[in-house]
Specification:
alpha+beta, Beta Polymerase, domain 2
Length: about 325
């Protein structure tokens, strides 16, 4: 559990501050306070709530560990619950996990709470670190940038999936493609896409209400949010496009498998067509009856030549008709 309070001051004195020393009434329009809470310990959330005089309803939002994306609106503050994603390994190389991101936006104040590390928080912190005049931003513009970083993590996963799909296309076109290995990878990617779709789509319930006309009463808190809905729809569309690409990759594989099957059947058909006349001729010549043709041993070579002529004729005809 970590609590970090960062004060961005347009006067050029950006600094980390102690929660107990925060005086909300002294944060003017040339400063912006960002409090980031990693974990949902009740005592620490209570400390943050007391420091910024947080309303009980918003305090419950931050303390709740199981909730769906939604918006809580009060007189001068807005609470938003979003669904973010992260990798649960120390270097971001483990399985994909879902994390709730609770946000409170007020005048010159942003509070974020998440249970576990978030790539979006880390990336956004790196982006704004050392940025001059960041304190001049209103809280709505600041959090809009943070939400954009959250959506960017979804796009990063989609791009990774698309690269995997390109590899699948190459596997599908190879003659030696393993059926089981290919389908296993398709199922894994399908599951990743389904998880992304299931986690990102509910964020509409948190972002869409912010562009309603009645939210204009909150002024600078939500004026920067309308573009976020378009950004969210872009992410959802990218996830859907990845699903279609995966289906297309599977179609390529199935088409290639059908082509290989057709090639095998064509080869077997040509071989059967060549061998069948010879088999029939040999069967006729082996029938148990007496005719003068069998009295001459040289006629054996006539039959063999006839078999070869028929086989060659069939091959020439197949080649002329472009069957092979």
């Amino acid at each position: 559990m970590t609590v970090r309070a960062r004060l961005y001051d347009a006067r050029g004195d950006d600094r980390d501050v102690d929660i107990g020393a925060i005086e909300p009434g002294k944060i003017d329009d040339r400063a912006l306070l960002w409090i980031d809470v990693d974990g949902q310990d009740a005592a620490d959330i209570d400390g943050v709530a007391r420091a910024v005089e947080l309303e009980p309803r918003l305090r419950r939002v931050l303390a709740n560990t199981q909730h769906q994306p939604h918006v809580v609106r009060l007189a001068d503050r807005v609470g938003i619950v979003l669904t973010a994603i992260d990798r649960n390994g120390p270097n971001g190389d483990e399985s994909l996990v879902r994390r709730d991101l609770d946000v409170v936006v007020g005048r010159n104040l942003v509070i974020t709470v998440h249970d576990g590390g978030l790539a979006a928080i880390r990336d956004y912190d790196e982006q704004v670190r050392g940025e001059r005049d960041l304190g001049l931003l209103d809280a709505g513009a600041f959090i809009a940038g943070l939400v954009d970083a959250v959506l960017a993590t979804y796009l990063g996963e989609v791009e990774d999936i698309e690269r995997e799909i390109e590899k699948l296309d190459q596997i599908a076109l190879r003659q030696s493609a393993s059926h089981d290995d290919f389908l296993d990878r398709v199922v894994q990617l399908r599951r990743r896409i389904a998880l992304l779709r299931r986690w990102v789509a509910p964020n509409r319930d948190a972002i869409a209400p912010l562009i309603r006309p009645d939210f204009e009463l909150h002024g600078d808190i939500v004026t920067s949010w309308p573009g976020m809905l378009d950004r969210l729809e872009h992410v959802i569309g990218a996830v859907e496009n990845a699903r279609e690409l995966l289906v297309g990759s599977l179609d390529i594989y199935l088409g290639r498998s059908a082509q290989r099957s057709n090639d095998v059947m064509k080869t077997l058909t040509i071989v059967s067509s060549i061998a069948l006349p010879a088999v029939v001729l040999a069967g006729v010549m082996g029938m148990n009856f007496q005719i003068g043709f069998f009295d001459n041993a040289a006629n054996f070579y006539v039959v063999v030549v006839a078999m070869l002529v028929i086989s060659i004729t069939i091959l020439v005809l197949a080649r002329w008709r472009r069957w092979i």
